[in-house]
Amino acid sequence: MHQPPIPHVAGSDPDIAELIQSEARRQFEKVRLIASENYASVAVLEASGSVLTNKYSEGYPGRRYYEGQQCIDPIERLAIERAEQLFGVDHANVQPYSGSPANLAIYLAFMRPGDTVMGMSLPMGGHLTHGWSVSVTGTWFNPVRYGVRADTGRVDLDEVRDLARRKRPKVIFCGGTAIPRTIDFPAFASIAREVGAILVADIAHIAGLIAGGAHPSPVGYAEVITTTTHKTLRGPRGAMIMSTAEHAAAVDRAVFPGLQGGPHDQTTAAIAVALREAAQPSFSTYAHQVVANAKALADGLLARGYSLVSGGTDNHLMLVDLTEQGIGGKLAAKALDRGGIELNYNTVPFDPRKPFDPSGLRIGTPAITTRGLTEEHMGQIAGWIDEAIRAATTQRDDVLDRIAAEVRDLLTGFPMPGWGGPG
Ligand code: DSN
User: Fold this and answer.
1) Residue 268 is part of which domain span?
2) How remote is the C-alpha of 319 from its chain's centroid?
3) Is 345 a catalytic residue?
């Protein structure tokens, strides 16, 4: 197994080996609530760490620029077929190195510099690559942005329609990184159709929920779908672009040779493994449990007086607005980390604070659900979060250290894929 113990790394590079071991222990001992993270299976980890890393295979199956593709071609074909079957799409490209390159390929496939792109504003829950100003997508292209309503915390689709009518974008992105509610793909599709735009659903956060039937699918609504493979989908760090047959050639050309060289074949194999796992009935159970856990955790926080953007969650994540608690997100996140609860500070819609120390926390349940935690544990976690935030405001590090010990005790009973634990 290519996970700790890692005797070969330990023999040749003890410094790195020790850091990997420490990271494994850290992942074992913490309640990991970063909404975009997960625990990949041992099978996925093995495929990612395999000899496939030694191979170059620029091109696509059957059309490569290097010899020796006898094993790589069938691996990539399997990954493609499994993606197409799992999501019910005409075409899948499994080569993008990660989510941002996948989204850049959309610009290359369908737009020219200066064209208009419409996406959700980053501080409202979108992604950098949906046209945010510090990204190349917001400087080389003409971005128009939609957000959420101040009173509901939800996307106002009438506003999106008005904006699209006025600005006539070539591409409309839906999806993002901090959206706690179901994405209305049919409504976005009707807007895109009306203005002649291509609708791209960025499902990076919810791909696993869609695969498991715990969130509606964009297939049949969005002509193009981008996703990472390592969030709720629980695969390796990678990405895919899926599309209708009509757009297949443009997507493939944009990924290679447009943006990338050789695909990471070890990642392709690990994506294939993850897609096979995601097609099993147990994965559907997992996806529904992720959502059930998020709802239970949201209820636990609401019951303790916390304000959640949009009032709750439909999916794997929630956004806590700490304004009433009188503490910034960064200080809260750092205190929680000391208390064994790992999450990230996040802007909330209309945040008066700066992005580097915003008003909110983003909390997600994909990783703790993989560890086997269920609704019965969410009240306890909400209680720890509340106690740690209070301890942060009174600088009670002793309380944080006590919580961290309680967290460690709880998690001892929940195995982590890829590591047998400290024993
Ligand atoms: N970094 C990812 C996230 O945390 O949502 C988005 O790219």
Assistant:
1) 47-278
2) 15
3) no
DSSP-based three-state secondary structure for 348 = coil
Domain count, the chain: 2
Annotated catalytic residue, options 161, 237, 390, 408: 237
Whether ligand 1 lies within 6 angstroms of the CB of 38 is answered as no
Whether residue 417 lies inside any domain: the answer is no
Strand, coil or helix: 346: strand
For residue 227 and ligand 1, the question of a CB distance below 6 A is answered with no
In this structure, what token pair is assigned to residue 280?
């099993």
**Is 237 a catalytic site residue?**
yes
368/253 same-domain check: no
Ligand 1 nearest atom to the CA of residue 128, by list position: 7
Residues 213 and 299 in one domain: no
Structure tokens at 189: 């599709």
Mean predicted confidence (pLDDT) in 54-67: 98
- 339 secondary structure, DSSP code: T
Judge if 195 and 333 occupy the same domain. no
Percentage of the chain lying above the pLDDT 70 cut: 99
The CA 302 to ligand 1 mean position distance, Å, reads 25
**Shared domain check, 243 and 210:** yes
Measure 179 CA to ligand 1 centroid, in angstroms.
Answer: 12
Question: Mean pLDDT score of the chain, rounded to an integer?
Answer: 97
- Structure tokens given for 164: 């699209």
Q: Quick check: CB of 135 below 6 Å from ligand 1?
A: no
Is there a contact between 224 and 247 (Cβ–Cβ < 8 Å)? yes
Last residue of a domain, one of 261, 278, 295: 278
Residue to substitute in 32, 120, 127 for testing ligand 1 pocket (most ligand atoms within 8 angstroms of CB): 127
What's the CA-to-centroid distance between 32 and ligand 1, angstroms? 15
pTM over 0.90? The answer is: yes
Q: How far apart are CA 134 and CA 304, in angstroms?
A: 37
CATH number at residue 133: 3.40.640.10
Residue 34 Cα: closest atom of ligand 1: 4
Please report whether residue 26 resides in a domain: no
**Do 187 and 105 share a structural domain?**
yes
Residues 198 and 289 in one domain: no
Whether ligand 1 lies within 6 angstroms of the CB of 289 is answered as: no
The upper half-sphere exposure of residue 175, i.e. CA atoms within 13 Å in the direction of its Cβ, equals 28
pLDDT tens for each residue of 75-126: 999 999 999 999 999 999 999 999 999 999 999 999 999 999 999 999 999 9
| Res 3 pLDDT > 90 | no
